[in-house]
Design goal:
Elements: E1 21-23, E2 28-31, E3 36-41, E4 44-45, E5 53-54
Antiparallel strand pairs: 1-2, 2-3, 3-4, 3-5
Length: 59
């Protein structure tokens, strides 16, 4: 079973409550405002701030 894309309508960043974007290449949900990437493990998004990784600002 793959990550259900319909969840994108209801999921939000746990830090800022903003919209998340799906990064299929890295299997993560991205919050561009906080520059955090939340992993998707076994098709389940791990929306814990301490599990997120910082992403570099795009140049």
């Amino acid at each position: 079973m793959a990550f259900d894309i319909k969840l994108m309508d209801i999921l939000a960043c746990p830090v800022c409550k903003g919209k998340l974007e799906l990064d299929r290449e890295n299997n993560a949900l991205i919050c561009k405002f906080d520059r955090l990437a939340y992993p998707i493990e076994n098709d389940i998004p791990v929306l814990l701030e301490n599990e997120a990784r910082r992403i570099e600002q795009e140049s």
